[in-house]
Design a protein that fits this description.
The chain is mainly β and 120 residues long. Helices cover 0% and strands 55% of the residues.
């Protein structure tokens, strides 16, 4: 499966952004999907994951502010990010895998990422 993220950008603290991840290739609906982010010099960090049948798990740091969803008819994954906090710029990646886990190494397919920068 091929993944392509979009929707990143430069926003101010408190703003919202919606990231999208368009999938092509093998059946999107059968994969568990995740969002991870990576700031310069840091390890890739779990953000949220959604199972093939719609169960979600969000990192504590984003719970209540970010919402992960998927539209299997459109082969698209979404991450709605509200109340963004000023943090170091990070690249947000979507990933597809066969395990519903918050561990980056368990995901088999990755997109190229989209940059998110939140200014104070």
């Amino acid at each position: 499966v091929q993944l392509a993220e979009s929707g990143g950008g430069l926003v101010q603290a408190g703003d919202s952004l919606r990231l999208s991840c368009a999938a092509s290739g093998r059946a999107f609906s059968g994969y568990h999907m995740g969002w991870f982010r990576q700031a310069p010099g840091k390890e890739r960090e779990f953000v949220a994951t959604i199972s093939s049948d719609g169960l979600t798990h969000h990192a504590d740091s984003v719970k209540g502010r970010f919402t992960l969803s998927r539209d299997n008819a459109k082969n698209t994954l979404y991450l709605q990010m509200n109340s963004l906090k000023p943090e170091a710029p990070a690249v947000y990646y979507c990933a597809a895998g066969v395990r519903f886990v918050p561990i980056a190494t368990e995901y088999n397919y990755w997109g190229q990422g989209t940059q998110v920068t939140v200014s104070s």
